Amino acid sequence: DVKVTQSSRYLVKRTGEKVFLECVQDMDHENMFWYRQDPGLGLRLIYFSYDVKMKEKGDIPEGYSVSREKKERFSLILESASTNQTSMYLCASSLSPGVETQYFGPGTRLLVL
Amino acid sequence: GDSVTQMEGPVTLSEEAFLTINCTYTATGYPSLFWYVQYPGEGLQLLLKATKADDKGSNKGFEATYRKETTSFHLEKGSVQVSDSAVYFCALNRDDKIIFGKGTRLHILP
Fold first, then answer.
1. d(CA B64, CA B20)
2. Which of B42, B43, B46 sits opposite A101 (nearest CB)?
3. What is the pLDDT of residues A5-38, one digit of tens each?
4. Residues linked to residue B92 through DSSP beta bridges, in sequence order
5. What is the rounded distance in angstroms from the CA atom of residue B33 to the CA atom of residue B76?
6. How far apart are CA A5 and CA B90, in angstroms?
7. Chain B: which residues have CB within 8 Å of chain A?
8. Contact at 8 Å (CB) between B107 and B85?
9. A39-43, A83-87, B71-75, B102-106: which range is least confident on average?
10. Distance, CA of B42 to CA of A92 (rounded, Å)
11. B16 in helix, strand or coil?
């Protein structure tokens, strides 16, 4: 079974802090994704990556950056956390581009005070 | 651009009732279509998918048929259980990404 793990289930940070969310997948998947999930808005794509050291902006990249130094690990960085970044963050991976299932981690619920 | 519209929730049903969650899409070309499910406290997982017109995806008693003529992919189940309580997302793929609907929360009462 594919396993996608996220470093924290719950996180509380203060405005202005730099926040790192880590995601690791164990199935040698090429593609990894970061989404945020908000009530009434569904899932919105923040960033994605097709390969190591590659990254592409999604629909809402502002205020975020990412890092993919190893194939299995994809990190989401909030450079200076703000209260409007309070959300559920979901990481996903898939084997290859195209018609492929995405496998999701359990999510990190981030509260920015 | 491409988009997915699904019925707003929450949907509340009694156990053993028939379920339909409507989903329509707007897309150029012929995307693949998906239903994902999110159980409480978990990430999303694929429930079923269909890759071309008239295909039927099925899993765990759920079914959905890819209808090109009506651009729809409605989710159905003949007899729901309490354990089906979750949030259901309709989605399509476009340019190696997946576009999700906003989700429909389903509550099943015992």
1. 10
2. B46
3. 999 999 999 999 999 999 999 989 989 999 999 9
4. B33, B99
5. 15
6. 24
7. 32, 34, 41-46, 49, 51, 89, 93, 96-98, 100-103
8. yes
9. A39-43
10. 13
11. coil
Facing residue for B100 by CB, picked from A31, A43, A97: A43
Distance CA B66, CA A29 (A): 28
Rounded Cα–Cα distance for residues A30 and A95 (Å): 6
| Nearest CB to A104; choose among B43, B101, B102 | B43
User: What residue type is B13 in one-letter code?
Assistant: L
Residues counted in chain B: 110
Which residue on chain A is closest to B30 by alpha carbon? Answer: A99
Q: A80-99 pLDDT, tens per residue?
A: 999 999 999 999 999 876 65
In the block, residue with structure tokens 């988009």 = B3
